[in-house]
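This entry is listed as follows:

___
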Amino acid sequence: MSSLLHNNLFQRVAVALAGIPLLLWINMKGGLFFLVMVLVLSLMATFEFRRLAAHRAHPPTLLLLLPMTALIQANFYFRVVDYWEALLAAVMILYVAELWRIQGSQFLNIGATLVGLVYVNLSFGSLLRLRLTGSVPGSAGTDTGASLVLLMFACVWAADIFAYFGGRQFGGKFIGRKLFPRLSPKKTWEGYIFGIVGSFAVAWICSRYVPGFPDGRAPLTGLLVGVVSPAGDLMESMFKRDAGVKDSSGIIPGHGGVLDRFDTVMFIAPLIYFLTAWR
């Protein structure tokens, strides 16, 4: 067991050491580089969500879902039509496709498929639009979008790391009740509080020392990320528990799947996009 844990930890660290610099470089480049990254992540997430849904329903084939995801994400970048029009077209296609299918319940099939399609595409679409803040599609853009994405990832990572180590060190010593025992028995209130502090601290550091932040709202964003970040992980845990699986997939060694690794980002990106779009 000990060797297995060490091997898993080694895989997690190795993937992080290779993946984080690559992600930061893609964020710096922006433009089509960022679009390709979001396309890959959204396609993998669609594959994983269909895998989860297949434990409870009979979702359509990937030959339908993957092209739909790719087109929706491409439209978030190029905006050939309004975003709601692209999603409406996808929904109507799913409704019509279900007419020819005889497996399972039509309510469950359509419902499970729509949850995944909307969740994955709106989450990653928000991330893509966030990166395009202040930029022109097809160009690298200004630093505004890159800084917002950098702030988001930094806060998410800080909240995760501080919550993990704070929970291991102090979990249960001051507050006996778990944070959300039904879906994540290991999460503690102490870890949650440490996550909020870590996210806020990193956001404050970014606002002071990292160029590209136009105002002083980064600490407030960090506080928001720390407060709501567990929701993304809990949502994915909810789906996995209902499907009866441990990980959404094994695509990322030591981390599980895209839904496992990017669950918090998928929940946080729309919130930060709202803050940016409605300011």
About this structure: The chain has ten helices and two strands. The longest strand covers residues 184-188. Confidence is low (pLDDT under 50) at residues 136-142. Residues 2-277 form one domain.
